[in-house]
Amino acid sequence: MREPTPREVCAFEAGIKLGALFHQFIGTPVSEASKASLEEAIRSAVMNQPYVKKVEVRIKPEALKRASKNTFGYASLSPEMLEASVWIEYRGVTCRGRLAYIEDKRYPLMTLQFE
Question: Is residue 1 part of a domain?
Answer without folding.
Answer: no
